[in-house]
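Please check this one:

***
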Amino acid sequence: MTLEEFSAGEQKTERMDKVGDALEEVLSKALSQRTITVGVYEAAKLLNVPVPARSDPDNVVLCLLAADEDDDRDVALQIHFTLIQAFCCENDIDILRVSNPGRLAELLLLESDAGPALSEGAEQPPDLHCVLVTVREKGTAGRTRLESWQGVRNG
């Protein structure tokens, strides 16, 4: 390994740490504001048709798709991922692939009392393969926080 390779690897690790910290902050705020949707089917419903009692799909600002190696072999899940990604790309919604669903579960379930969507079906763990973060209105603090995350990601 050369010095340049070592330095580049160090910079990449620092950048990933910043993205991880920003994502933790975004998820924490979304949980406290109850602007998070958890689950592939719930996400598809939210993205498909605006429901008066819930947020508008235009207010979705971030889509997290979490899968581990076992999930890569689940054809149905991959089809859902493809459809959700296509919708997000078409509507300028940022997509982040998460390779450690366990860590995502820790972030979301630490405050499971923050939202009813996370506590429903106590016998069965929630489907964390897709998580949508929304803002109540465009231009809110949630969007500003997300834009700062985007700056970390792009910078």
Remarks:
- The chain has six helices and four strands.
- Strands lie at 36-38, 60-66, 94-98, 130-134.
- The helical segments are 3-33, 40-48, 75-90, 101-109, 116-119, 141-154.
